[in-house]
Amino acid sequence: MKHELEPFFNPKSVAVIGASRHPKKFGRVVFENFLRPGFKGKVYAVNPKGESVLGEKCYKNILEIKEPVDLAVIVIPSEFVSQAVKDCVKKGVKACIILSAGFSEIGNTKGEEEIAKCKGKMRILGPNVIGIYDAYSRVDTIFNPPHKQGRPEKGSIGFISQSGAFGAAMMDWASSEGIGLSRFISIGNRVDVDEVDLLDYLMKDDKTKSVAIYLEGAKRGKDLFKKLKEITKKKPVIIIKAGQTAEGSHAASSHTGALAGEAQVYSGVFKQTGTIEVKEIEDLFDISKALAFQPLPKGNRIHLITNGGGFGVLATDAIIKNGMTLSELSPETVKKIKASKDVPKYAVINNPIDLVGDATSARYKAAIESVLEDSGVDGIIVTILLQLALMESNVVDVLVNASKKTKKPIIVCSAGGQYTDIHRKLLEEAGIPTYSTPEQAAKAMKALVDYAEIRNK
Questions:
Q1: CATH assignment of 295-456, given 3.40.640.10, 3.40.50.261, 3.90.180.10, 3.40.50.10380?
Q2: Which of 166, 232, 260, 333 is 20–30 Å from 157 (CA)?
Q3: pTM of the predicted model, to two decimals?
Q4: Per-residue pLDDT tens over the stretch 121-146
């Protein structure tokens, strides 16, 4: 049985109400999104002026379209939205996204009440949203042009954001970093569909392995508690809660009309439900991708492998600060690594393992494979300085192959410029999360350890 929100993500037909011939109008950008390669459904332009848009026939009203319409996207001034909603209901539209602003975020609660009253059984996302981006079906209602804001490739992270602007910026960043998404949803003022509904959808979505959320405040606190408790038994949820201060809460209320609530109360809810709360923006995707990509460790015994002593020291500190322990290799493992023809006598076989500055990919292979086979190791953090003269690009293959053969998590830390970034993206595309600092890598591993404990409970 299909989920009731499925028409938002996999519609067979879409009508853009407010499609425009003007290249800078939001309606033009959205309509053009659906004409790009990838979206397999039918798209209709709707505009009272009835002029063709990008060579496509334009209907003056959605009711003029003879064929069924699964999804309507409304991009018109707020004063005309309720009538457009009524027309959609009459047409039998299953789902509607209202991009238009000018509602409760500016005190216009009556406008939202009218929409809620006339929507019938049709599900509505918005108003005051940038809507949905689905990397698989290519539903794309984002009104920022693709040349200004990147669209991430297919991935395993489902992303819900109460703020459209924050969501757009994070999507752009994810795209540039090579981090794939399954679905992105901007929820705005939540006249109907909210984070609880979407958590239920993403919980049942096979393409989503972890869920990242930017939340200012919940309208259905008890329902959110129940749903978080349910989903975290199956998939990890990572939340950044905005409005941590009184001033931030006030800003949230004027942003999406949300009551942000007490930060401590929300933190308590997250802890009780097994939800991972992060405080910094960069942690939201750093942790989400680790939980989406990597298997869960059986414990918190972590081993470090590096070709830069300083990075090894920093990573050691980060592991301990994050409440994990340094694993100890068995004598058999130490003997095996030292016996390898690719590992010189001056390499330090301890924790961290320092393969030193002339390390090759073969040396990394010998160390990584041996450490992963050790029963006293639950996960590894590999730091690689790719700038060093003897380090080859095929170290990427070494890591990818090792990841395929093990059920233990592998986290990579590699700092540098353009050359390093190329290799980091290759690793990310292969499902190995990479970070530019040891602190980020340790936080990601800690999240895996914590969620493993949550699942075990």
A1: 3.40.50.261
A2: 260
A3: 0.92
A4: 999 999 999 999 999 999 999 999 99
